[in-house]
Amino acid sequence: MTLPFFVYGTLRPGAYNHDRLLLGRTAAEEAARLPGALLHDGPGYPYAVPGEGTVEGTLVTAAPDAYGELLGALDRMEGDAGYERAAVEAVRLRDGGTVRAWTYLAAPGTALGPLIPTGDWFRACPADHGRGRP
């Protein structure tokens, strides 16, 4: 199934993993929100989990010729960091529309850091947090 990706941490535009893995491999990137989820700080990156909240992020549509390679690279990176890929049904766009997308949620048993009440990792954690890291 070919779906766009909802990203909310180091894969967002301007962050290290975006530039390393997504730059030049996307057809579109748009600000979006994921309702029905909570955001927790982690060890240099955040974790989303199902819950009564909203997570801020970006909807990324892969370039058609890069989709398979990108999906594999993201699955490997996110799996190593304690995430599981999940299809979510209601990523909300600025125009009010919704789309189905892949996102990476904390795997069961993953140690979560403090809750980020705003649901926006960039706004809540103004320190580097993956932006510009080697």
TrEMBL record:
SUPFAM superfamilies: Gamma-glutamyl cyclotransferase-like. It holds the Pfam family GGACT. Gene3D superfamilies: Gamma-glutamyl cyclotransferase-like. Residues 5-121 form the Gamma-glutamylcyclotransferase AIG2-like domain. It comes from the Bacteria. This is Gamma-glutamylcyclotransferase family protein.
